[in-house]
Amino acid sequence: MKTSIILMLSFFYVLPLAYADLLVGFYGSTCPKAETIIQQAVEKLFNHDKSITAALVRLQFHDCFVRGCDASILIDSRNGKLSEKDAFDSIFLRGFHLIDEIKESLEALCPSTVSCADIVSIAARDAVDLAGGPEYQVPTGRRDGLVSNLEDVKMPQPNDHVNVSLQIFNEKGLTLNDMVTLLGAHTVGVAHCGFFASRLVGNQSDPNMDPALRAKLIKLCFKASRREPSAFLDQNTSFVFDNEFYHQILEKRGILLIDEQLAFDNSTSGIVRNFASDNVGFLQSFAKAMIKMGSIEVLGGNEGEIRKNCRY
């Protein structure tokens, strides 16, 4: 029942003008089927792997936060030169093979036309929509960067305090509201135990965590296992893109420290409460924040290139 309600509440965010150097419908004449091809590939994978929504949103987030939205996160390390993809912060990124598949299809139809950076942005949008999130138009026209260095990676960390994370968001031209909104993508994400186990036991354990959740996570994280287990960041509607994440953190059921801090820091608690009480408001804010994030330091004109292979 809840899923159907969320889908009914999804709205269509219309962007009437160009955003930064980008334009809705950029490929209308040069590759008119581009967005349809991307949407069909994402939907095909989503139908048997709902976790792809979180993976694609995170992929765009990591791409835009390093050198801007230029698909530098997709470049493979070569000849001993390590790329962003091999940074510790990139260790659990997924979705690369889907982007490869889409790029191959687009190159066959419209050679050297659709950038890898635009594929990432459109694919993330489509995955959010499929999970019950907002529909919105993605301004396109990004070009692909030529550089990817491991040393450039500086991402917000799961154990950061609000003011530390905010500084990184501000450096990218994003506001406090944008930060709280974009972290709402954790409504469909997971975190591996290594990123929050310190909150469970020992001197750094967090006494504010819900006791039932703590017991559940201790059992999950400290059992013998060759592979590091993970926990849903939204323990309730884990594959539905809605505002339930904000309800969870207000109930002290935040998995990551930064998530829990959002609910109780004086600067962010009001935003969290507003989103928790207004799902439509959250979805609208998320669409706007994704469009804004997708414009960070984009390459246009004759800058960069249109890669034939997103990995090179």
Structural write-up:
Helix content is 42%, strand content 3%. The chain is mainly alpha-helical and 312 residues long. Helix 7 (176-182) packs across helix 12 and helix 11 (269-277) packs across helix 12 (279-293). The longest helix is centred in the N-terminal third of the chain and has 15 residues, at 52-66. The N and C termini lie far apart (45 Å). Residues 1-19 have low confidence and may be disordered.
Helix-strand blueprint:
Blueprint: H1 2-9, E1 12-13, H2 34-46, H3 52-66, H4 96-109, H5 116-130, E2 135-136, H6 162-171, H7 176-182, E3 190-192, H8 211-221, E4 230-232, H9 244-250, H10 257-264, H11 269-277, H12 279-293
Parallel strand pairs: 1-2
Antiparallel strand pairs: 3-4
In short:
Helix content is 42%, strand content 3%. The protein has 312 residues and is mainly alpha-helical.
Give the terminus-to-terminus CA distance: 45 Å
Percent in helix:
40-55%
- Poorly predicted segments: 1-19
Give the helices and strands as they follow along the chain. HEHHHHEHHEHEHHHH
Strand order of the largest sheet: 1-2
| Major sheet details | 2 strands, parallel
DSSP strand (E) fraction? under 5%
Keywords:
312 residues, mainly alpha, globular, disordered N terminus
